[in-house]
# Entry
Amino acid sequence: MSSRMHADEVDTDPRLVRRLLAAQFPEWASLPVRPVPSAGTDNALYRLGADLAVRLPRIGWAVDDVAKEHRWLPLLAGQLPLPVPAPVGAGRPSEGYPWPWSVYRWLPGEDAAGGRLRNLAEAATDLAGFVTALHRIEAPRPLDTEGSSRGVPLALRDAATRAAIDALAGSVDRGAVTDAWEAALAAPEWHGRPVWVHGDLTPGNLLVEEGRLSAVIDFGALNVGDPAVDLLPAWNLFPAPVREVYRAALGVDDATWERGCGWALSVALIALPYYRHTNPAITAGSRLVIDRVLTS
# Structure
């Protein structure tokens, strides 16, 4: 994978991390720092000693996520059945790095890609339990309801999704994906109470230990809105038979399921032309989702 995924990405390296720590967290400055390979697109991650991690936004659109995670994750964590990141230090811009950054407790495990889950049906049930618990937590007014933020009505993604379909001419069946997208748009909108949503439940944001789901990470897309966005794993992680296990465990209605399918398709379509030359993992995952949506 290319080390740069965005034209205006900020470069980071262990030397920068050490300078930031020395200036702001001298108690951790002597700990070893090493980069963590990841297909993640918004943040660079560094292991700090045995028990900590440093996370620095790569790109401007991820900067506001730092304060959001520091504010809300400590409040949500105790109400969820799986571990989530625990911020322990809020860094400031300095040493040539322009944005806020974070220190977290290290969560052990590997991401859920690559067949690491020993029992997908068990994983679907465990993940559904996490999602159900998150959706039940009392939520404030929507955190962000503009643009393409997760949990908003699908119609707000229409222009970007159709632009992606046009950009993928010759790479996807434009007629089929357009029909699938329009079918999702036709589903009734969410009229229930807005709920907390993770918003980015991809295999890369799910950790696995000893073959079982062990933690959920990266809450940068955390929002309050339509729960359909948290159906993404039904297409980005689970094959068709297990997809139905996830659906049954969540107990969602047909309209929410259809919107969830639309979310999966839209996310994949928009990511594919943007990352197809820089992020093989996202490219492969996006193509898998598109295929699963069209054959479901």
Notes: The chain has a mean pLDDT of 93. The first strand starts at residue 33 and ends at 35. The two ends are 30 Å apart (CA to CA).
